[in-house]
Amino acid sequence: MTERTFSIIKPDATRRNLTGKVNAVIEDAGLRIVAQRRIQMTEAQAKTFYEVHAERPFYGELVAFMMSAPVVVQVLEGDNAVAKYREVMGATNPAQAAAGTIRALYAESVGENSVHGSDSLENAKLEMAQFFTEADIVG
Length: 139
Ligand code: CMP
Description:
Strand order of the largest sheet: 2-3-1-4
Structural class: alpha+beta
Order of helices and strands: EHHEHHEHHEH
Bound molecules: adenosine-3',5'-cyclic-monophosphate
């Protein structure tokens, strides 16, 4: 089934000029980038986005990291896009990520792990709505 998922290319990757290389892995996997914008996250945006992790000990660090350099927010479309993108990203901890995945190739640590991808279709819709309107998405 054709789905849309939400992706962020994180500050550790934009800082190292890896946007194009990350996008190449995404496109080679058969996912289409149907919306994309480079932004500087505000504190309010970062806090809202990671609200589910507010009680975790790394929340403050995570919010600060997401504001530390520009990020690229994206909508990806394709067959089973949510699960497929999670496969393409690899495990949260790059030390456990399968070879060839974005995190195995580029991530620096469990915190600075180059990309975010939605973990469910429901969260994908909520996350997309934080950064894009339907008019921004050209499939
Ligand atoms: P992400 O998929 O964006 O969702 C939550 C993020 O929290 C995760 O990627 C990591 O970047 C971050 N994270 C998870 N575990 C840790 C940790 N132990 N220390 C710091 N950051 C973490």
